[in-house]
Amino acid sequence: MQSFISWLDRILTSPLPEEIIAVNFNLYDDGDKCWFMEFVGARGFDADNPDWAWEQVFTFRDNTLRRVQNAGW
């Protein structure tokens, strides 16, 4: 958990763009027990649209949070 907090603190040390009204944490894996989290700031939000975060204003793609763990499922 501490690595997540430190990672998020690094992102939030600088002000985010003003046009961000919603944030999203993209989670994905590389298929080899390695998981990544990406921080995304979006210009809009629609609770009825599962793809609402496509209108990205800000991403932290160059510094994703990485975790190696066997999910066991």
From TrEMBL:
Name by which UniProt lists this protein: Uncharacterized protein
Record organism: Enterocloster clostridioformis
